[in-house]
Amino acid sequence: MIKWFHHLWSVLFVIISASACSEGTYSDLEEFVNKSGEGLRGKVDPLPQIRSFAQFNYEAFNVSDPFNAQKNIPSSKHDTLQPDLKRRKETLENFPLENLTMVGTLQRNKQIFALVRTPDNTVQRVKIGNYLGQNFGLITDISETEIKLKEIVQDSVNVWIERLSTLVLQVQAQAQK
Predict the structure, then answer these.
(1) What are the extents of the domains in the chain?
(2) CB-CB contact of 124 with 133 (8 Å)
(3) Whole-model pTM?
(4) From CA 25, how far away is CA 62, in angstroms rounded?
(5) Which of 21, 33, 137, 169 is least surrounded by CB atoms within 10 angstroms?
């Protein structure tokens, strides 16, 4: 019997609690909602004036596309530049040009020679007409401070082109005493 009485009180408590919540007024909340929009006036800026642009007609259809990698290849194979692949390679053609160093010059009977150091620390004597580097670099001029070359390299679409390069004299500082 005590259990039944205890359950009865629990049920009555829940019913009283629920009825107390439903009797509450929301007048303060309703007042806030009603007053929150007072004094607000919506203002929308007018749309900007639409400007008309001058029409442009693209008429360069016969001009080559600067973004296309294709190039105009000459019609005759004799007109294209190519290195002499049958020519016997010289010793300094076994090294990339950036690994070679000009270390000095010599002159004999009005002919000037350049001294070039290889990565294995040997020094070779070269003259105009010799080849340097792995890009078929023909020596075109030698001065006391530089060696000028004309290299033949392939561009991005495998067309042979000429490129001018220079190997500059490397001056080493002398040890101070």
Answers:
(1) 89-168
(2) no
(3) 0.54
(4) 82
(5) 21
pLDDT digits (tens, 9 = 90+) for 141-172: 999 999 999 999 988 778 889 999 999 998 76
Question: Tokens 């900007």 identify what position?
Answer: 48
Residues 6+ apart with CB under 8 A from 115: 102, 103, 104, 105, 106, 123, 124, 125
Report the distance separating Cα 55 and Cα 26, nearest Å: 64
Output the CA torsion 80→84→85→91 (10° steps). Answer: -140
pLDDT in tens, 91-125: 999 999 999 999 999 999 989 999 999 999 999 99
124: its two tokens: 């070779």
